[in-house]
Amino acid sequence: MPGETLNAPAMSRSVPSVARTLPRCLLYSIFARIGGSGLDTDAFETLRASYRGGFLGKAIAYDNRQKEIPASLIRSLRWHPVRLISFLDRPYYYGAKKKYLDWIASRHLTTGRYDLFHSWSGDCLRSLKVAKRHGIPSVVEIPTWHRDGGKEKVRRPKIAAPTENISSFQRWKNRLLLQRKRFIEEYKLADLLLVLSQKAANTFRVRGFPEEKLFYLPRGVDVERFRPGKRPQKFRAVFAGALIKRKGIQHVLEAWHRLRLSDAELWLVGFVHEEAKPYLKEFWRDNIRVIGFVRDPENYLSQGTVHVFPSQWEGSAKVTYEAAACALPQITTREAGDVVRNGIEGIIVKPGDVNAIAAALEHLYGHPEIVEQMGTAARRRVVENFTWDHFRGRLLDAYETAMRMR
Question: Of 4-18, 197-211, 246-260, which range is least confident?
Fold first, then answer.
């Protein structure tokens, strides 16, 4: 069954194909676009499952950039009225857009047409309450981890909110923000939580969530788009992703600076954020190439020797699937997801462990035969476990599980 090769049978539950209990009419909402890159791809592949299954009722998103699924089934909020307050700082505007999406979805749920609701954490509190009142099963996807991380109990000092000297405008703005309690309440209201990795699942387990409420849904990758290329003559490490501290760029740069490898280079493929610039300056070497954001990451990953991505916090990093599909061994963390198994498809290090990153780079630099073995294993792993077909199959299992919970 889906999940067995991923060592997660308790969460990824496959139901026999006989007498499947799938929804008749799904409502899906997401704070993203349908079609494109990143989360937009996830949204598109999700809708493909229900559209091809014949039960997509309506999707609500902030734009539609694909042609396969009829536009009549997608309500685009591209010209939303929240644009009128786009002058607000990003956290307020961001929160307002999410709450507007939630409000639109909640109104759809009151029609009595839908028998399953699927949304994302932070996008759906009002909608989940409506779904609960109408007896509509709900599925909530968790993009990263539990809001409180992996801590068993988070002590939060109670600070009295100041009520004086705050203008009515500021009070109104504050109501737009996404507060922690919103996410926590969504977790409780949802019938089924989709978690992207074992690490993410553990952050819910330690908070007391039962196994039957967690469904393991790793991502997918287009294995035709992301394919192995010719291995370069020189050793080329690639870091692909936004250059931010959360993804460990500072640790990659420090490890690379220490090594002084000859006939080697480091490619940085991703948008360079301000927080990364001091580290680029401090640990700069002439064999570093800053490529920046690209729309064709496959053309850079396929030219690499190894992918180094020591992220400190992810749900399940899409780039780890993509690099594996390009037959790159990876130096990464368990926090980045479950694609890489230590010693098979790459080397797992602890977040922030610069010594371990440097040692892993040096090891692969000195052993090209291991690079080949791990690269072959990486490609095989995604082809056998992590295509978008695998993803859609698991998603249908999740929908069936949610339908049977009511």
Answer: 4-18
Contact 140, 119 (CB under 8 A): yes
pLDDT attached to residue 18: 52
Contacts of 338 (CB under 8 A, 6+ apart): 6, 8, 197, 198, 199, 218, 316
Please indicate, yes or no, if residue 84 is contained in any of the structural domains: yes
CA dist., res. 338 & res. 194, Å (int): 15
Query: What CATH number is associated with residue 138?
Result: 3.40.50.2000
**Nearest Cα to 326, choosing from 307, 348, 342, 308?**
307
Which residue shows structure tokens 């969460």? 11
DSSP string, 298-353: HHHHTT-SEEEE--SS-SS-HHHHHHHHTT--EEE-GGG-SS--BTTTEEE--TT-
172 and 77 belong to one structural domain: yes
Model confidence pLDDT, tens digit, residues 232-259 = 999 999 999 999 999 999 999 999 999 9
Provide the residue range defining the domain that includes 20. Answer: 4-220+387-404
183 exposed, middle or buried (CB, 10 Å; 0-12, 13-18, 19+)?
Answer: middle
Residue 228 lies in a domain: no
